[in-house]
Every structure is written in C-alpha cells, then in structure tokens.
Amino acid sequence: MASYEEVDVLIIGAGPGGAGVAYELKDTGAKIVCLEQGPWVTAPEHPHYHDEWEIEKQRGWAYDPNVRQLPEDYPVTGTTTPYMMNNVGGSTVHYAGHWPRYKPVDFRKGTEHGLEGTIDWPISYEDLAPFYDRNDEIYGISGLIGDPSYPDRKNAQRDPMVLPGKLGLKYAKASRDLGWHWWPSDNAVITRPRENREADVGMGNELSGSPTGSLSTPAHAHWPYNVRAGVDLRTMARVETITAEGGKATGAVYIDRNTGNRHEIRAKIVVLAANGIGSPRMLLASAQKGHENGLANSNGLVGKYLMHHVFAFCDSWFDEPVEGFKGSFGSPMYSHEFYHTDMDRGFVNGFGMQVARSFGPSYAAMGTHTGYTAPWGNEHRDFFSNHFANHLMVFMFGEDLPVETNAVTLDPTVTDSDGIPAAHVNYELHPNDIALAKYGIEKIFEATRAVGAVETNDTGVLYPPPAWHLMGTCRMGNNPQDSVLNKWCQTWDLPNLFVVDGSTLTTGGAVNPTSTIGALAVRAGEYIKRNYDHITTQKTTPSNADAPDM
Amino acid sequence: MNAVHTESGAPVGEAPAPWGAPEATVEPGKGGGYFETGRPRLGGLEKPVQFSEPRQAVIKALADTIIPPHPDWPDASETDIVAFCGRYITPTGYRNKHFPWADEDSFVAALDKLGQAFVDASPSDRATAVEALEKAEDPFFEQIRALVYYGYYSRPEVVLAIRRNVPAGKDYHGPPLPYGYIQSLEPWDDTTLAQANENGSYLETDQVERVDLSKLTWTK
Questions:
Q1: Helix axes B53-66, B81-88, angle to 10 degrees
Q2: A16-55: per-residue pLDDT in tens?
Q3: How much is the average pLDDT of A313-341?
Q4: Could you give the C-alpha distances from B72 to A312, A389, A429, B170, in angstroms and in order?
C-alpha cells in the first residue's frame, strides 16, 4: 500500500454505537472518520407509500441479511436468524423503537445468581442513568415518566406518548384486572416534529423504517449533525482488517465498495461498533502477527457469551375490533410483572410482555406472527373476516443466560463479496431460558383470555430466536479474565481500541437493548473526549480501579 | 443440459437480478458469490414477466380457487393478479434470490401441468387439484398462495372492500403513509392512566442478593 491517511479517531460502523460516540466527539476539533460498509437508506427506498408494502417486508426489507441479500450484507451461517441491517443508522433502520431501560438489578446478575457465564457489570444503573437521559434527548423519545418499576428518571425528556388505540387499551385493562404491573411504553418515535423529522402520524410498519424520520434512528438523530460538524462519514467503506502494532491499534484497511480499491487509515483511537455479530467477526478476521487468535482476544473470549433474548410470539384473536394495523409499531404498553427472579417459579431471571401492533391484511392472511396461515378455498373469506384486525400480538421475551459455547466465530469456508470470512453463529437455548419462556407464554394467554380472547396461537419457544438483539460477544467486565472490555469499553489487550455496541453488554436484561447501547455510546464518547491524551498515551489498558475517571 | 445464458451472456445463476438497482462494482460471483447484487425494486419488476393467454387463464383460475369469488368482494381473478405474479417471480436466466423464490421456468411448468383442464374444471375439482399440490409439498403451492394473498390484499379495490365488509377494518387504508392513523386512534384516558402506577416495584442496586438456587427446577 502506497500511502495512508492519519486521523484522530476512526469509527467502524454507523449504527447507534458509532453514531453515538461520533456525536459526543463531533465538536472537539478532532479529525474523525467513520467507515460504514453500507449506504444511506433514502426516503424513497422505504415501502410505506406502496400498495405492495407488505410483500416488500419479505424482500429488500427482510430482517435477515441471509434472506435480504443486499450488496452491503454479509452472510451469517449456523442455525440462526440474525436480524440486522448494514447501513447508516445500522439495524435501527428497521427496529420497532421499543425503548426500555435496564433496571438496577440487571447490572448485578452475577451477585443474584451467577449461572453459566453470568457476571456483574463493572458499572451500576446509577453510573449509567445520566447517560440514558442524555441519549434519550438526542434520539427523541416519547413516553410517560413515573413507572413504579424503575428508579425515578425525572430529568429524562419525553414527547407525549404514542396513542394506544384499542389494542393498547385492551392489554392495559387485562394487566390491571389481574393486578399486574403495566405502563405506557417509551418509544423511539417522536410525537412532536424536530428539525428534518416529522412527528409520528400513527403509521405503523416501523419494522421497515420510517421515511419521514418519525422513528428515532442515528440516520436522522445523529448523522446529519455529525456530518455538519465535520465528521467524515464514508459509506460503502467495508473494513477488511483492523491493524495493530506494539500493543496498540493503529487503524484499519478498508475496501471502497464503489471502486474496489483498498485504503489504509491510521488513527490514534479506534472505535469498533459493528454490532454483536459484526464486531467479534471483525476482531477475529483481524488476526495478525502478535494477535494470532484475533485482536483483543488473548483470553479467547471474543465472540463468546452471545445472547439474543429468548422469544415466543403469542397471538390472540377477539370477536371485536382490535385494529392492530393502526399506530406506531413501537409498543403502546408493556408489563414487567414477571421481570424479577422469583425462585418459586423454578428459574432465574424474568421476562417482559410487550404489546405489539400488527400489519395489514396480507399479514393476517399469511399467518400473522405465529404461522397461523389463513385457509385457502371455501373457508378463506370467513376466516379473513373473523381474524383481520381482531388480532393482538404480545411478545414474550426473556433474559437468556450468557453461555460460553453460544458464540460467534468465523466461517471457515463462506465469505462475503469481498472475500472476508462470514460470521458463524452457534446458539442454543439454555434450560433456564426455556422454562422461563414457557411460563411467560402461559401468563400472556392468562391475560388475553381474561379480556375475552376467543382464539389463541403461539410459536412455542422460538429456536433459533428472532435475533433482533445481538449481545454480549465483547463484554464489559471486571478484569481481563472475565471479559473483553474494561468498564470504559476499552479492550483489555489494546488500550486505544474501544468496542461500543450490543457486544459490549455484559448481560441482556429482559428489555430491548438499543437505549442501553446508546447510553453506553454517549458515555464512551464523553470518556474519550475528557481523557483523549491519557488514552492515547496508555501503553496498557488500565484496570477498572486505575482507569482515570470521567 | 446446456448452460443457459442471459442476453448479456452471463450463465444462469451468475447474473445480477434485474431489480433496477445499480449493480455493485464487485464482479458477480467473486469472493464466494454472496450478496453482490442490488436492492430489489419496490413493486417488483419494472418489466413484468409476460404470460401467454392460456397461462394467464390458469393463474386466474388458481386465484379464484385460493380465494373463491364472493358477491361482496372483488374476484381475485379480476385484480391484476397476473401482472402481480409477473412482477414478483424471477425471470429466466437470473438468480432466484428473493421471496417468494419462484423462478419463471418452474412457475410456468407448474402452470402448464395444470393447463386448460384445470381452467375448465369445476370449482371442487380445481380445489382437489390445489389440495394435491399442497399435500405433495410442491413448492409451487406456497409460491402461488403467497402471490395470491399478497397480490389480492394489496389491491386498492380490495382495500375498499375491506373497509366495507370487515368491521375491524373499516379504517384500513392500505399503505401506512402518507396518512397514518393518528385521527382514529384512541388516546389513553385519564382514569386508566391514573391506575397505571398501582403495581410495580424494583430492587435498588444494593438490595440485590443471592437467590436460593436449590429451587431451580430445570436440569441440564
């Protein structure tokens, strides 16, 4: 390679991790480059204005890159359905925008039970709380302050709640009648307009993104501001190797997918934010002299302790309108009645019940969320008329244990279009996960039957799980033996290499992870800003006790 | 069998799908042959696969068998279903990589197998023929069912019929945007919200203690 360019901070990946760190650093004068292997997804590429919006969900907007097969995607092999997107904004460009936080207990699961690979986080809820608030403000979150199942968050900014509709009101009544906890959800959906973004109009289908910007993603909330401030965001730039020398990361070699040319960037700090599958893949694919097992992997933990949450979909039908096609897909409400460990149930951890919206008539005909396909032939018309929009779907999703053998590795034979090894996933459910999920399915139907469900259907415990959540594969921990990162997201092996994304999460909680990933990104960005000189002169990664504080 | 080539000379299974997106500059098939082509075009093919009249008749007969005619609803055979199939199957010579994974050659062969006899058959005999495809787990069955369901329920005239005929669908207006449903969604009411904080609690960080693991009921 003839030449290279030098920057201060190199960020790999333009999703919530990378965007969040860039946002904190954008006004420091530091020279920042972000490499993103995919493109911007523009408004006209969204299916929301098309008659065919439902079939498009199975095609270019399929959640699984193995199904979608866009040029920016890379294969993920193994028994897995990884749900991710590779573009500016990352996988948030097709997320529902459910925005719960972890609870204090989620940071102390090592103390609570320590099963399998469970350890305590090196930080507490209280450490992260101010960054949750700050991150919420950047994204734009709607909801209601005051949930008694969380510590107070009186400083968090909220747009007014999304409207519940018949569907939200129904499950709220069910929970209330049973004496269960319930609360209107926080959603990454704005209900008041912001610069370059329209307020939600109750559209639905956020799982195919939002062309109006009503869904809060880094593509709308971060990158326009990052770029305006001078952050150099390079799309179609696929990193091939992260380079290292003398115990430090030195930068990366990337392929410009527009030209096929390779370029080298050297940086004083490298932030890897390629998601819970992409980041371990990148570290393992960057094996080089002195790092034969991959970067940051001297203890062999890169890629291990993969968590997805344990899932079941529970459909209920009523003999009256539920109108699930209306309203933002972000959940109208949730119940955390069964969130905490109760050993009388025979398992540790817990689950959330999250009320979801539905889609349109094709979704009803094709079997909603549970494969309950409408019969063809003479029974079709009656079935359709009795089921469409009389439907309520509740996600059972629970905390899965971090298990060492649940892991991301490199596929020895399959590669992406640039010859970089594909990721391979091994993930099996733990008996605790299964026990928890079965209990959860029962409880959900207890609620929907109490408010008049006339028919129910569920998927059972899903395997492989719908892997929206890619977590734990480069986890933060307490020492170089139990984790890949210290409490500031620095890799134990290379002090100037940070990992900030779902892989950073030590445990998964029983909540959607993006608000926590975002909060960690704000925190890591702020830390780099305040300690830039210290970090760039560190020869080894400091212990949690010795690291300079904020 | 000789290798089939597209007009541009590329062998079958190597050419990018003709979805109208710009091709990646990476050579097709290079580096493992994965994911090198463009985003599928919204709405399917710009130039749909064309079917002969006898084949169009089979598609229409299939549509009316899968979703039988009803006086309150548009007939499935009269809702552009032929064009919808033509837009969402993969033309001969291109990689068949997107839902519903129906390639033209197999699709047409399945239509021809049913043929005029299917078109001329009584509704119950047609149903028997489709049932045979379903029982045999013929991939064509799932493809045509998906195309008919997705195609039929995407048509504006069917959306109007849903509004007329299905009480729960009286406000359904097809594509989510530009209108959304903000005008017809019920808000939270004050009484309900006032009851929301009746239940729920959390553990403080320093309250977290070891649980009694002897009570686990699962075994590994």
A1: 100
A2: 999 999 999 999 999 999 999 999 999 999 999 999 999 9
A3: 95
A4: 37, 19, 48, 15
Q: Give the DSSP H/E element, type plus range, for residue A263.
A: strand A262-272
Restricting to A residues 296-355, those with a Cβ less than 8 Å away from any Cβ of B are 320-323, 325-327, 336-337, 340-341, 343-344, 346-348
CB–CB contact A416 B199 (8 Å): no
Rounded Cα distance, A346 and A434, in Å: 11
**pLDDT digits 0-9 by tens, A304-326:** 999 999 999 999 999 999 999 99
Q: Which residues of B touch A169 (CB under 8 A)?
A: 186, 188, 192
Pair A99, A147: CB distance under 8 Å: no
pTM of the model: 0.94
Q: Which two tokens stand for residue A326?
A: 């209306």
Q: Which residue from B198, B193, B171 is spatially nearest to A164, judged by alpha carbons?
A: B193
**Both tokens assigned to A5:** 């360019």
* Distance of alpha carbon A103 from alpha carbon A260, whole angstroms: 46
Chain B residues touching residue A416 (CB < 8 angstroms)? 31-32, 34-35
**Cβ pair B150:A52 closer than 8 A:** yes
Q: Which residues of A are less than 8 Å from B13 in CB distance?
A: none
Provide the ipTM. Answer: 0.96
Structure tokens at B198: 């009746």
Beta strands in A403-526 (DSSP E): 407-415, 421-426, 455-458, 466-467, 497-499
**Please, are residues A374 and A384 in contact by the beta-carbon 8 Å criterion?**
yes
At B94, the pLDDT band (50, 70, 90 cuts) reads confident
Answer yes or no: do B199 and A148 touch at CB < 8 A.
Answer: yes
DSSP three-state, residue A242: strand
> How many residue pairs bridge chain A and chain B with CB atoms within 8 Å of each other?
310
pLDDT digits (tens, 9 = 90+) for A275-312: 999 999 999 999 999 999 999 999 999 999 999 999 99
Residue with token string 């936080």: A101
Place of tokens 């929206």: A468
